[in-house]
Write a structure and sequence with these properties.
With about 400 residues, this protein is α+β, with helices and mostly antiparallel strands. Helix content is about 50%, strand content about 10%. The longest helix is centred in the C-terminal third of the chain and has 27 residues.
């Protein structure tokens, strides 16, 4: 396909990526940004990571960038990749290559100088484009047309592409959810179904990485439903996926102006009870923080309802903290069946933005001063005071707090 000229994005003209490209292109070798940064430039999105391909061999890249004063790290040098740090930002610089063999997880490569051959080993047409300093877009497989049409296609035979790296099954759905419209490419979907057993060969860490990106994509709900209908999703999460709940959650987040957060989205998709969080931690190698958020959703989403009044919601917010409460309230809203503009649910879901829970104002020393000795009785009284303080709607005045202490300590 003949290259066409496009306007260079700002990051190509100035900033750390521009400085690195100028250094790499100063001699006899050629370097181009490839993949996602080029794709995003065509649709006006921020570049994200700027990956660079080059005709230079890894050792030559290291020498060239060192001479320019840049730090390099041999992050994947056996496969041709050197990470170069410019102005505190890392860029992966990879020598042009061809796959010699693969076991479905790792490829054996040989280095080359053929840009189209290098592009042909990539996954999707929209990720195989590169850009030269004169603004020429090199698009060997029709990626720009696919991007404009809202279509994600594998390069060449989808089954072969998947067998080179089984993770491409999940990557297909993630990119479809991020950049496509309408139904998934039929050949790609069929290949993902045929090769689905290969997902079992992947590490839990790689599965987690893709799932966390997929659940926050623009069309995550409909795409996950396609995966569920195709029998691909249930085995990943180990249960029945709740795709409609995730779709409704996305609508509610947009209405409230909230950013999509992967743990909350995953909770809406797959956590009804706390045991679901335990299962997902094992299947996806979740971090401790991600697990705690999912466990909180399983523990508390079903206890929130605007019909119960705001005081109970405040008590939940006090107990869970703003983020934990927001996770539970938004998932409860999504599962309630209420319209996204329901006033009661919107008020409950936005409570953490409208009200800050005060700190519990009574300490053990306050009770000791009232004659309660240290020990089990003091702990029991303090717990009762805490509940009474919450039931009284979190008073903060000295007189109200003193009255609470007097009432409970004289009644004991």
């Amino acid at each position: 396909m003949t290259p066409r000229r496009i306007s260079l994005p700002d990051w190509f003209d100035q900033g750390p990526a521009a400085r690195l490209l100028a250094v790499l292109n100063a001699g006899a070798e050629e370097a181009r940004p490839v993949g996602g940064a080029v794709r995003n430039a065509l649709i006006g999105l921020p570049p994200g990571d700027v990956d660079i391909a080059t005709t230079a061999l890894p050792d030559a890249v290291v020498r060239t960038v060192a001479a320019a004063g840049f730090k390099s790290v041999p992050t994947g040098i056996a496969h041709g990749t050197v990470t170069v740090v410019v102005e505190g930002r890392g860029f992966e610089v990879t020598t042009l290559r061809e796959d010699v063999g693969t076991d479905g997880r790792r490829a054996t490569v040989r280095f080359g100088r053929d840009w189209q051959a290098d592009a042909s080993r990539r996954d999707f047409t929209i990720n195989a484009m590169s850009l030269t300093p004169d603004g020429l877009l090199h698009d060997y497989f029709g990626g720009a047309a696919d991007l404009a049409a809202g279509r994600v296609r594998f390069i060449g035979d989808p089954v072969r592409r998947i067998r080179e790296d089984r993770l491409r099954i999940l990557r297909f759905f993630r990119f479809h959810a991020s950049f496509a419209t309408g139904e998934p490419d039929a050949a790609a979907l069929a290949a993902c179904i045929v090769e689905r057993e290969g997902l079992g060969e992947l590490s839990r860490e790689r599965l987690r990485m893709e799932m966390m990106k997929l659940v926050i994509a623009a069309q995550a709900g409909p795409t996950l439903q396609v995966m569920a209908d195709a029998g691909l999703l249930g085995s990943l999460i180990g249960g029945v996926p709740l795709c409609r709940g995730l779709d409704r959650l996305a609508d509610i987040e947009r209405r409230l102006g909230l950013e999509a957060e992967a743990p909350r989205r995953l909770g809406a998709l797959a956590v009804l009870v706390r045991e679901d969080a335990d299962r997902l931690r094992e299947r996806l190698a979740l971090s401790n923080e991600e697990y705690r958020r999912l466990d909180g959703i399983g523990h508390g989403w079903h206890g929130l309802d605007p019909a119960d009044g705001e005081l109970l919601a405040k008590a939940a917010l006090f107990a869970a903290g703003p983020r934990g409460y927001r996770d539970r309230a938004l998932v409860a809203f999504a599962r309630s069946g209420a319209a996204p503009d329901d006033a009661g649910w919107l008020a409950l879901a936005s409570l953490a933005e409208r009200w800050k829970a005060p700190a519990f104002p009574i300490s053990g020393n306050d009770l000791v001063a009232r004659g309660i000795p240290a020990g089990p009785e003091l702990g029991s009284t303090l717990a009762k005071l805490r509940q009474a303080w919450i039931a009284a709607d979190f008073p903060t005045s000295n007189s109200a707090i003193s009255s609470l202490i007097t009432r409970l300590t004289t009644a004991r």
